Structure formats: structure tokens, C-alpha cells
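Margin note from the TA: students keep mixing up input and output lines. Inputs are the sequences; the output is the structure of the whole complex. Example:
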Amino acid sequence: MGVQGVASTFRDLGLSNWIVKSCRALGMNKPTPIQQSCIPPALHGRNVIGSALTGSGKTAAFALPILEKLSKNPYGIFALVITPTRELAAQIVEQFQALGAKLSVRVCLVVGGLDMMKQSVELDRLPHVVICTPGRMADIMNGARPPKLSKLKFLVLDEADRLFEKTFARDIDFIV
Ligand code: AMP
């Protein structure tokens, strides 16, 4: 712990050695402020609202506790991350794959503009983490083969301020 009781390492935040090593291998040696604030309560199963600028390590602030818990009980679709754009969704997939490489984490991207049937088939195979945009996810959940989400442990609304705008309201409401 640091001088004011603030955790200064990923280990102090409650993460396992394998994940600390994965962070280090990716050049993440010290948690950023948003990671210091969000990771411990997320690991304790609390609801968390985080607010920080782009580039402050927000993605890892939710990806790391998800991967930590997933490593202990990798069963069913474990986490669903909703984000407003396809580009953000693709970046989140990359971070989960990089941080979760040691777990061979299976991540599924569910966004508009890509083959919906393929995405449905992938969801049937129960990936660990699903990263989606609201419209496509709502379409699939409304379709003939809704994904099995009964084992879901984490729901993330990334860029929540944008997701709560009118354009997404119906889809977000439906998914949640
Ligand atoms: P984000 O704010 O999630 O878009 O992250 C911005 C960039 O910061 C990404 O490339 C991350 O890999 C990187 N990053 C996240 N956490 C840390 C950290 N604790 N130390 C160094 N880089 C980090």
C-alpha cells in the first residue's frame, strides 16, 4: 500500500499473479487512478460507476476484474460489455484478448455491419466475454436464437453517458 492507504500495485488491488504478469508484459506496471478506484469494488461484486478521460485506462479497469473472476469460474457467457460504436467494441476485444491471453479467453464481437448469422453461431458456442453495440445485440436477442445469458456475472455499460442518449435507449432497456 502507498502512503495514504492507496494501492500502488496491481497485486495490492487483489489481482492474481498471472494477471499482474500479463499487465507487466503489456507495459502496465502501475494501476492508473481509475483502475485503483474501480478494481477492488468490482472484485468484491459491487456495482461500480467510473468516470475518467479517454486514455486513462478505463477499459482495463473493467477488463481486469472480469478476467480475474473468469479465471476462477469460466462457465457460460460470463460478461457482456455494451459500447456505443463498432470501433470502440473492436478496441475492447483487443484489450480482452491481450490481457486474457494466458486464459485463452474466448471473446465474441457482436456489432452491426458484420454477418449476424455468424455472430449467432458464435454466441451459441458460449464465449466467455461478449462485446457488443446495442442495436445488433438487441436484434440477436429478439431473434430466433437468443443467446443464453443466464450465467452472466458482469454487465458493463462502456461510455454510459452516450449509451443513455435517446438513440440507444430502447435497445439498452431491452438488453438490460
Ligand atoms: P483506455 O483508457 O482504456 O482507452 O486505455 C488507453 C491505453 O492505456 C491502452 O493502450 C492501455 O493498454 C493503456 N493502459 C491501460 N492501463 C495502463 C496502465 N496501468 N499502465 C500503462 N498503460 C495502461
